[in-house]
Each structure stands twice: as structure tokens, then as C-alpha cells.
Amino acid sequence: MSEASTRPAADAEDVAPAPDAATRAVRGRTVPLDPFEADRLFRFGVALFNGARYWHAHEAWETLWRAADDKDRDFYQGLIQVAAGLLHLKRRNTRGARNKLSEGVARLRPYEPAHRGIFVNELIVAADRVVGQLNAGYVPHLIPPVIRFVDLDELH
User: Fold this and answer.
1) Is the per-residue pLDDT at 123 higher than 70?
2) For residue 79, what are the CA distances in angstroms to 31, 93, 139?
3) Nearest Cα to Cα of residue 61 among 49, 51, 50
4) Would you list the domain boundaries of the chain?
5) How far is CA 112 from each of CA 34, 85, 107, 109, 125, rounded to the nearest angstrom?
6) What backbone phi and psi angles, to 5 degrees, belong to 49?
7) How far apart are CA 58 and CA 88, in angstroms?
8) Alpha carbon of 12 to those of 15, 32, 103, 149: distances in Å?
9) Phi, psi of 6 (to 5 degrees)
10) What percent of the chain has pLDDT above 70?
11) Which of 6, 36, 39, 156 lies most in the core, judged by the most C-beta atoms within 10 Å?
12) CA separation for the pair 18, 41 (Å, rounded)
């Protein structure tokens, strides 16, 4: 006899009501962050990335990705994937580097030329350069790309 058939049926009062759509958590997501905390985490992730601390940048941005609304989820996931690709490259895992960098670039392209105050296009160019070298059979030395913030005065 199976375990399922030996358990007594749940009483009606033991069954919790299903949450409505407004309160139901989407798998893997968290509640939105305070805008100041989100900005702090984003900038912290950029600083970690610029210091070639790709794992730690990935962790900071993952918190943002889980809390992001639909319009920014791919942006954060793209940053995470580029960071993961560069971490793979540091570890000389060329297949992982190529795959994650390519996936990250694909997710970031819709946000060109700039988004959230950073030059997305420059990051894409740097990642594409590494992917091109990997596709040509080279294992490039990692020259860490730098994420630059947009100077708003230049745009006016």
C-alpha cells in the first residue's frame, strides 16, 4: 500500500485557502526593494564588478534581480550572466565563459545604449570581444572590463 493511501484525508479546516493573485509570491522573486537600497546594491555590484570580484557582484545583483519588476529583470540577469562569464574566464572555463557572456549580451542588448545610469553598450562591446576571441580558439587574458556611469551633463 502506498504512503499516500495510508494517510487520513485532510479536514476542510486544515487546508489553507489559496492566496489571491496580489499576495501570491512568484517563484524565486522577493518583495520590491526600497529605491535607496536598490540603488546602493546596484552601485555596490558595479564597484565589485569593476574590482574583478565577479562572484560578489553577481550576488549583489541577484538580490536586485529577484526583487525587480518585469521591465528590469532581463537587465539584472544580463549583468549577472556577464559577471558569471568573466568568472568562468578567470577560472579558464572557456565553454562556461562563452555561454554566459553570450547569454548576458543577448539580455542586455535591449537596454543599449545606457540603462540605470551605466553605459550598457560598452559592456556589450567588451563581452563580445571576449566571445569573439573564444570563438576563434583563443583563451584571452582577462583584461577586466569597467562599467562606467553615464555623466548626465554629457547628455544635455
Assistant:
1) yes
2) 20, 19, 22
3) 49
4) 33-146
5) 25, 19, 10, 6, 11
6) -60, -50
7) 12
8) 6, 34, 47, 57
9) -90, -15
10) 79
11) 39
12) 33
Phi, psi of 63 (to 5 degrees): -60, -40
CATH architecture of 33-146: Orthogonal Bundle (1.10)
- 27 conformational bin, left if phi > 0, alpha if psi -120 to 50, beta if neither: beta
Q: How far is CA 141 from CA 38, 58, 71, 92, 123, in A?
A: 33, 21, 34, 9, 17
Q: Which residues contact 5 (CB under 8 A, 6 or more apart)?
A: none
Could you read off the pLDDT of 5-31 as tens digits, one per residue? 444 444 444 444 444 434 335 567 888
pLDDT in tens, 128-137: 999 999 999 9
Asked if 38 contacts 62 with a C-beta cutoff of 8 angstroms, the reply is: no
Supply the mean pLDDT for the chain.
Answer: 85
